[in-house]
Amino acid sequence: MAKTLITNGTFVTMDDELPIVVNGSMMMDNDVITYIGVNKAELRDLADIIIDGTGRCYLPGIVNTHGHAAMSLLRGYADDLNLQVWLEQKMWPMEGKFTKEDVRAGTMLSIAEMIRSGTTSFVDMYDKMDEVGAAVEETGMRACLTRGIIGYPVELQQAKLKEATDFARNWHRTAGGRITTMMSPHAPYTCPPDFIEKVVDAATQLNLPIHTHMSETQKEVDLNVQSYGVRPVEHLLKLGVFSRPCLLAHAVHLTDEEIAILASQHVHVSHNPVSNLKLASGVARLVKLRQAGVLVSLGTDSSASNNNLDMFEEIRLTALIHKGVSGDPTAIPALDALKMGTIDGARSIWLDHVGMLRAGYKADFIAVDMDQPHFVPRTDMVSHLVYSASGSDVTDVCIDGQWVMRKKELLTLDLERVMFDAERSFQGLLER
Which stretches in the chain have pLDDT values below 70? Predict the structure, then answer.
């Protein structure tokens, strides 16, 4: 592959060892960044391709650490309901009808939306995951994938666990390393304790992390106490979940003691502010989690509970909502929110050399069009990205050194076809 040089750009590095904002050039060779810094004339002689970055802000690709991509087919199907009603009466009956073709159609729709809004890596927990893996491989995305397992009915546990284990083993570090995998018991309230222990054993044998939903609602916490005599954190601790590298989705309802346990066990948390607000699940204790040393990243959850996959919204809301609930305008500064969506996201899913613009790191980055009124005056680019920008400002996306979008044109999928297939799948679900 050609050596590519981007000149005259503004680069938001997320690298504490460099200035956060660099005006100059970035060079990439194959899939790796080889230089970032001031413009140097000699770099032009080394480059096969030179791109003028004037008017563009480049930053690491956004990392979405929790979602269910195929559920884009259910966007707008059921809104303004509490979580249990939404799941049990609306989502699960429809999802029970999903075919392999539906999962592919919904996943492709989500991937198109994520690329167009600047997400380069995502976590997906769902069913029929071979279709998801194929879609990721085909479109050039980077993803951490897992077959989410519900432990009921009990007679299907063994088959589901085998399916999840086979998927994790077969797809880990495929697509040139762009796909990694995890093991995922869906949640403490959907998996019996002995089944969770079996999933932990499988994760241990495969040497893989665990991803699960936990303490999303107060009702879920109360149910755990009623069923098992302890709150979810202690419950999962006893079952060995935290013996593996672990990423928890939501973790909204936590005590100080539970936060201390998560910190001591080096558990990561995916904060999903939009979905938690829409389902009235509550507001996670993000400031306390971060103060305790818990690594927190950001996720959208599914676009059936969000209802989009624009991670710029999650970043902005994270910076805003915790100011509001704490009364402290310094609670989550803009730079911290942006790090949660980039480098902290990459670290949360154990991606090496992803999430920063730094020599030696993967060429996973996006470009934002700064030649717009909401980026003027050019005071603080981090502030503008967090408080002013949206996913619609993204013009270019590069993943693993490959352009997947240039000048807002998707290069690895046919958007018209993707939208047609998704609409057809949804209509088919209504008719079944």
Answer: 1
